[in-house]
């Protein structure tokens, strides 16, 4: 039996499928210790009263030092440990944005093309979202 979290008790965590053409940005965690060395889609928690798209732009600025814009929400929502749920948006760098660099909780970044998506050990919680991304253009079938 799957326990669902009532809408009012959910906390949305946004993840960015930051794209550069047909490449996806992966970020390697440096903290906390139990997640260090594993890879994720960068992002973070949506603050009270904040739209998920705005939270994603803010988180990318804080974590990677970039100016990004969201494109579209990836179909699906993935339960993390209650009450958190993961939602993912595709995003791209705005013209003139600095290149991404690890600022908070990451020690490495890597651009992955479609053939390299599974070359890094993703955090378990990000695997279903990466699977979904692998099926969408520009990474997967058109």
TrEMBL record:
Catalytic activity: 8-oxo-dGTP + H2O = 8-oxo-dGMP + diphosphate + H(+)
Listed InterPro entries: MutT-like, Nudix_hydrolase, NUDIX_hydrolase-like_dom_sf, NUDIX_hydrolase_CS, NUDIX_hydrolase_dom
Gene3D superfamilies: Nucleoside Triphosphate Pyrophosphohydrolase
Keyword DNA-binding among record annotations: no
Keywords of this entry: DNA damage, DNA repair, DNA replication, Hydrolase, Magnesium, Metal-binding, Mutator protein
Family statement: Belongs to the Nudix hydrolase family.
Protein name from the UniProt record: 8-oxo-dGTP diphosphatase
């Amino acid at each position: 039996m799957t326990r669902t979290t009532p809408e009012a008790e959910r906390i949305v965590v946004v993840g960015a499928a930051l794209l550069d053409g047909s490449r996806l940005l992966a970020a390697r965690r440096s903290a906390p210790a139990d997640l260090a060395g594993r890879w994720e889609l960068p992002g973070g928690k949506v603050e009270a009263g904040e739209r998920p798209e705005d939270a994603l732009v803010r988180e990318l600025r804080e974590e990677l030092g970039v100016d990004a814009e969201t494109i579209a929400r990836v179909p699906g929502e993935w339960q993390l440990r209650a009450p958190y749920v993961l939602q993912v948006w595709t995003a791209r760098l705005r013209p003139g944005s600095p290149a991404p660099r690890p600022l908070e909780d990451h020690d490495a970044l890597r651009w992955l093309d479609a053939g390299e998506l599974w070359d890094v050990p993703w955090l378990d919680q990000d695997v279903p979202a990466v699977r979904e991304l692998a099926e969408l253009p520009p990474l997967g079938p058109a």
